[in-house]
C-alpha cells in the first residue's frame, strides 16, 4: 500500500480501492461503486468539497481491518475516521467518524427509518448497538459535525443503486489533493530575524517576519467577529523581527520584536496562504459540455429554506434552474422573489425587469422572435452584470430552444489546442458598445480574462455589441485569426446544451461564464422576464470562492 507521507494521498486512496473496492459486503453494489455514488449524491445536493470527500471516503474503515462479519468491519466509522483524520481536516474526517452513529441516531428519532435501510445496514445496526438511547442521542446532537454526519448518512443510504452511472474514481483526484482539505503536518526548520522556515509536509517553506506580523492572528490584531485587521501597516515598527518561534502541535507560535507582540498560526492556515514555492492557481469551478452537465434544479420553497446547496451548484457549474414559480395563469413567486433569495436586482437602462418577447420596435435583438447567436450580455457595461435570471411565464411548446455553452470549457480547450490564440485573446482588450434611448455605453475588456496566475475569471463574447476592433495594424490579422478560432470553439456541437424552459421555471446563470442563445425562431407566444444580479450576492455566500 502507498504511504501518504511518501507519495500522493490520491494514489494511496486509489490503491485502497484497487485492493478492496470490488468487495460488496452483502450490498447490491461494490464498495467502490457505493463510494462513488455517495460522493455523486453529495455533489448533486450542492455539498461543499469537504462533504463530497467525506461521502467518498465514509466507508474507508472497511479497507483497513479484516472483516469481522459478513457485513465487513463493524466499527468502520471509528477506524475510518481516525485514518481520514491523519490526512484531512476535521470537516472531512468527523462526518466519516460519525456516520455510523448517525444511523443509530436516525433510528432513535425516526421509528420508520430502520425499515428504509438496506438489509446489510440493518444487519450492521444490530452489531453496532441498535438505535441510540436518549442519552446517546443527546451526546450525538452535541457533536459539532452531527449535521454533516447526518448528510453523509443520507448519501450513504442513497448510494446503493445497481447500474447507476456516476463519475469514475479518477475524477476525484483533484479533491483528494486539494491543499485546503489536507491536514498539514508542521515542523520548525530554522528561525532568522527576518524570516522563519517550517516544513508543511512537502519540504521547507519560508515566511517573512513582516508578512507574519501584518497577518498576526491575535485578538489585538484581528477583529474577532469579522477577522478584519485592526491596524494599518504604517503603524508597525520599522524593523519588525522574529524574537522567538516554536511549534506546538499544529500551531506555530511566534514572538515579534521590538514590541513583543505574540501570535499563533495554524498549519492549515499557513498551508493555505503560503507564497514560497510554485504558484498554485485555484480551480473553483467544474466545466461542462453537452454530455457531462448535470443541471442542478431546485424548487423555490426548498431554496427558500436553505439557499446554500443551490448557491454552491451555481458557483460550481455557472447555472441552475429554480422551479415552482408563477406562470402566465398561476400566481406564485416572481423573478424578483428568486433574485431576492440572494440580493437586490441590478437595475439597468432596460429597467429592473426586462421582458423577452416579440416587440414591434425592439431596442435589442433579444426582444424579437429571431434566433440569437450564443453570447454573454452587456459586455459594454462596467462592471458587467454578474448573473442573469430568465423566468419563463408563457410557452406554447413550439420553438424557444435555449442554447447554453460553458465559456470556460471553450476557453480551456482553446488554451490547450491553440495557446497563442488564447494568449492574444486574454491579453488584448477590445471595445464593446451599445447606444440607444439616450445612452451610449462603452467598455474595453479582453474576450477572455485571467487572473495573475492564469486562472480563468470571465469570458465576454457578443458579436452584436463588439465595436470595431482598434488594435495596432501589425496585430489585427493575428487577432482576428484567434477570434475566429475561439468563435469556432464556442459553436462546437459537443459544447452546446439545449433546454426548453417551461412555464414556472427560472434559469439562473453566470453572465461572465455561460453563453446563451436561441436556436431557430422563437415560440411566438413565448414570454420570459429577465433581470440581473451582481455576482457578489451569490459568490459572497460561498466561503473560499472568488
Could you walk me through the main structural features you see in this protein, from its secondary elements to its overall organization?
With 546 residues, this protein is of the alpha+beta class. The chain has 3 domains: 9-179, Hypothetical protein af1432; 187-273, 2-Layer Sandwich (NE0471 N-terminal domain-like); 297-539, Clavaminate synthase-like (Double-stranded beta-helix, 4-Layer Sandwich), CATH 3.60.130.10. It is 33% helix and 20% strand. The chain is built from 19 helices and 20 strands. The protein has helices at 9-20, 31-44, 49-57, 76-85, 90-109, 113-116, 119-127, 134-141, 146-158, 173-176, 209-214, 267-273, 300-305, 308-317, 335-340, 407-417, 419-427, 473-490, 536-539, and strands at 187-192, 195-199, 204-208, 241-248, 251-257, 262-266, 297-299, 319-323, 354-356, 372-375, 387-394, 401-406, 430-436, 439-445, 448-450, 456-459, 496-499, 506-510, 514-519, 527-533. α5 crosses α9 and α16 (407-417) packs across α18 (473-490). The protein is globular and about 70 Å long.
